[in-house]
Amino acid sequence: MSYVRSLANTIRNRSHLFFIERIETLTNAPNFKTNEHLLPVVAQDIATGKVLMLAYMNRAAWDETLASGKAVYYSRSRERLWRKGEESGNIQHVREIYVDCDADTILLKVEQVGGAACHEGYESCFFRQVEQDGSFKVVGKRVFDPDEVYKK
Amino acid sequence: MSYVRSLANTIRNRSHLFFIERIETLTNAPNFKTNEHLLPVVAQDIATGKVLMLAYMNRAAWDETLASGKAVYYSRSRERLWRKGEESGNIQHVREIYVDCDADTILLKVEQVGGAACHEGYESCFFRQVEQDGSFKVVGKRVFDPDEVYKK
Asked: Cα–Cα distance between A152 and A121 in angstroms, integer?
């Protein structure tokens, strides 16, 4: 094979590789179809493995989370970015980020400041366990008093 | 107090208690606003604490999950109930169920048959980790070959 042809092949192969990598990157990114599109986000305590909460992100929340290293969600009730802990001080330091197979759900492994993610003062928002008969019992312990933390 | 009045009070008190319990049950139940309304469901491996996947339930999926003890979701792409593992055999035995503070997210702690929840053959659907620069790397290990399990 001539040197020129060999070089041409090398470039073609590299372009091909580059192209494949680009596609890989694009398809693996969270698939925000529009700037307003919300994806569910699971926050898990990196130390205990406890599932703390589920919230939502739009593209702006995702970008700010990556840039700041702190969890930023989109609050559907307040209809604006919600910097987790902005009121309570219980921010989440994001240590690891995962995206699922369909690129439509995000998993954050976080360090939860204050030991409680839930606005009701519990470590986890999932503090109610469902019994087989459909009844519920509270299984979490209150870490803080919400009336103290969220003063009206 | 006459026997009749005492009996009347007992009945009234019990009705009151019953009423309170009903309210408690209703407000803590997952808040499916309509039969079609979908709520996100996090499935977590009860042994390892790994977050396996996120899927959705409508009221029928919730009812069947409670009745059968196996995870039943609503597939948005197939637009029907999806008995997890119906094709792959990798069913999820539901060991614990939690509902969050707003009653709009469900957490299942499951025993994952086959050791893999993801249709791509990974233990968890969250097998792609995001680097600080926004690029991705695959961190999960394939447990099964999807081409073998989902034969066309």
From this structure: 16
